[in-house]
Amino acid sequence: TTIGCMGRAPYSGDLESTWQDFEGVYLPAADRGELRVRVMAFTPLPSWHRLSAFIEAQGARAHASGRLHWGGVKEFYDGSLGSRTALVWDPYLDSVGPGQAERPPGQTVGEGGVAGQ
Predict the structure, then answer these.
(1) In this structure, how many other beta carbons lie within 10 angstroms of the beta carbon of residue 9?
(2) Averaged pLDDT score across all residues of the chain
(3) DSSP 62
(4) In what order do the strands lie in the sheet with 68-74?
(5) Is the per-residue pLDDT at 23 higher than 90?
(6) Which is the most buried residue in 12, 16, 32, 44, by most CB within 10 A?
(7) Phi and psi (nearest 5°) for 53?
(8) Contacts of 12 (CB under 8 A, 6+ apart)
(9) Would you say residue 102 has pLDDT above 60?
């Protein structure tokens, strides 16, 4: 059995809380052999630099016990770009009115609904 831990950051608004849990709870528990299930710990996307440095320092993406894994990042959104339910600061690039969509000539929509030329 594996548990995916996404951390508290999306709910607390504090990116540091996920790292506090990882370094203060999961790593010590893995060191003591107390993890009875495998845990895949994800960190918030804005802290990917910190995760990258941690992986480089450890030289691995998993604890020697095999019970704790890291290396994934997670970002939370409130909706979907494709269905126009995501909260965004600017209007959608192909929006011309409520419930209508039209792309300007030469503009494409790439992977993930991101508009480009």
Answers:
(1) 22
(2) 78
(3) B
(4) 2-5, 38-44, 68-74
(5) yes
(6) 44
(7) -65, -40
(8) none
(9) no
